Amino acid sequence: MSSEVFNNLEQDSALRASIDRSLRHPVMFFLTSGAAWLAVSIILGVISSAKVHSPGFLDGFGFLTYGRTQAAHLNALIYGWGFQAAFGVIVWMLSRLSRQECRAAGMILTAGHIWNLGVSVGIIGILAGFGTGMPWMEFPSFCWPVLLLSYFAIVVWSLVQFKVRPEGHVYISQWYLMAAMIWFPWVFITANVLLHMMPGNPVMAAGINAWYKSSLIFLFFTPVALGTAFYLVPKVSGRPIHSYSLAQLGFWSLAVIMPWAGMQKLTGAPIPYFLPYLGATATILFFVPAFTAAVNILRTAMTDPEVVNNSPTLRFTMAGVVGLIVMAVAAVFLNIPGKTMEFSQFSMSVYGFEILAIYAFFSFVMFGAIYFIVPRVTRREWLSRRLIKMHFFFSIYGIVSIAVIAIFGGVQQGIGQEAFDQPWLEAALRAYPYAVFITIAWCFILFSNIFFFMHLTVMWLRLGRRSTHPTLLVSGHHGSPHGEEGDIDNCGSGTASAH
Amino acid sequence: MSSPDHQSNPDLDETINVTQAHGRVASDCAAAAREKHLADSGREAVPLWVITACGVVLLIAGGVLGNAGTLFSYDNTFRADYVRGTAPGGAADGPQPKTALVAFSAKGSKIYSSKCNGCHGSDGKGDGANYPSLVGSDFVIGDTQQLAMVILNGIQGPTSTGKTYGAGIMPAQGAGMSAEDLAGVMTYIRNNFGNSTGDVTSVEMAKNAFDLSASREKAGQPVTSEEVRAAHSSMLAGAEIFPDIMVNPATLAPIE
């Protein structure tokens, strides 16, 4: 990292600060609008979950029926929050790793607005009843070219920066982020062209749809979150990544195994017999890339547990990595044919696994990244460690409840569904208590994210703390809530400050 | 700017407070400056226990893939010798279970078409002159004892509405009927043609009806509406069967 040009530490800091400054507007736009979509998604999630156990809830509104709110909930979560958080992190991190200021901030910001427009039109389309009915692709079919074009306009600059980067080895985060940036258009174009433009056998279309969902999780959200974690952990803790060979094993096993996953959703359907088994095998093998990466990150971070505990960034990132391990074990547990696979594919287990992947793993790492990036691009420190702690604990309680309840409740529901000589009501009654708890858990997550969104908006308005000291999650009474120095500085940046 | 001192020292401008300016640079880059550098990755070997854990998962995955049949054979959509496993509840031994209301009514509709259809008609409405309608009749949708007595013994004289029909008498239908037949036909009549009591007359209740019928004072003679109203204004005794419980449609016995 220390080439001749940047051997001067102060020059190096100035370069990093100027990279952050060049990206302030697009990055803050992606993160803040992403957080707003997350709040929208969670509200829709509460409504759709409530309808599972109380069908009379809000039944006077046609646009709030279960079929529409559930679809809008997941699509807002994926395209509104997930992708925009990923864009903010990718654009910032690859600029930093290529050591160049971003020269296309205006273009990225414009493309980001177009992406948002596409998502908004799509969500309104779903609620108005124009959804396509294909899971995770419910946006009306005219939306996908808009999303694809704005995607290219957002990420192409990072590819250019990578191409003209100063010499040096390619860091692990760059492998993962570049791979995700290239895999996503492949997956997205394949699925949308095959389903919207060249519709073939409808059973196979359901299979392609299932592959698309699985690929978004394993070939976009997973590598983005892993690349981010591999950057944040050494950056905050100051330790080198534990093992380079472990990282290589994790990356290449992800690349080789995960494109095969997804078709297990169609077990027993009249598609070629080997496909569901191949999908189940690949999904079980997700354990290998997930576990090796998680062990590597945990070994790196746990050399200094106190730093992990005090840093908001590392606390969220480590929670996300633990979420990854749980997700890897669930991938094995839910896909054993003859044991659990029959019970898990048409019940709320699927939903539990998706929420585990998107929220417990991906989103937690993204929260970690946001707590790291935002003070740098706004040059203000987070206002309140209490707000950060609220966000952390309510999110943890909520997501653990949802994942555990949906996965095990889904297996119970699946056992009920398999007893085909019993009325369907039996299966619904088995799922009832679990559904009630999922609604309550979403309310916890909603509560935590309203605070997160407010905190982030205040930071976006540059109303954060003017200080040279980070906001750490130290416990105990230090006199001032802003850390030991208590160096809150409201006199403007011209005043001399502690060094 | 006119002072010669400034010209000889262009870097020193007294309008700038140096301490302040340095502070601004320090605070603008503060977050970037306190960052740690990414060091070269460590070269630790892959730990043995990680390899072992991944090996166990590989074994599980291999077992799953072993069931896949021939890989990449796009013509086979199912396993060659596939048979659906036995359903819980022993459904493989007999006919497909149905809910009690459906199963009892199906049995009852057969009895109805052989014994009742001729007079009361396929729509249960009779003809208005000689044969009364079963739709909305007090004796049909009221207490089950009343309906059972009329079916088993027949009825003479005025019906539940007080009107005497052209036929004057309904003959007894109990001969040759089993308790299952009676339970079925009663459930059928009470839940069809526009009647919807929603309950099922169980086999046990039907047995109770045969007992009551045999112990009547004028056993063997048709009942009259006065007798029915006076002596049988109550439901048949016996264990209830809920309409949505699953039963074997042949024996009408509940599935355990």
Description:
The complex is a heterodimer of chains A (about 500) and B (about 260). Chain A has 16 helices and no strands. With about 500 residues, chain A is mainly α. Chain A has one domain (about 15-460): Cytochrome c oxidase-like, subunit I domain (Cytochrome C Oxidase, Chain A). In chain A, helix 2 packs antiparallel against helix 16 (about 425-460) and helix 5 (about 145-165) runs antiparallel to helix 6. Chain A is globular. Chain B has about 260 residues and is mainly alpha-helical. Helices cover about 40% and strands about 5% of the residues of chain B. Chain B has helices at about 5-10, 20-30, 30-35, 50-65, 100-115, 115-120, 140, 145-155, 180-190, 205-215, 225-230, and strands at about 100, 155, 170, 225, 245. In chain B, strands 3-2-4 form a 3-stranded mixed β-sheet. A two-stranded antiparallel ribbon of chain B has the order 1-5. The model of chain B is unreliable at about 1-5 (pLDDT under 50). The chains are: A mainly alpha (about 500), B mainly alpha (about 260). Chains A and B meet through helix 1, helix 7, helix 8, helix 9 and helix 10 of A and helix 2, helix 3 and helix 4 of B.
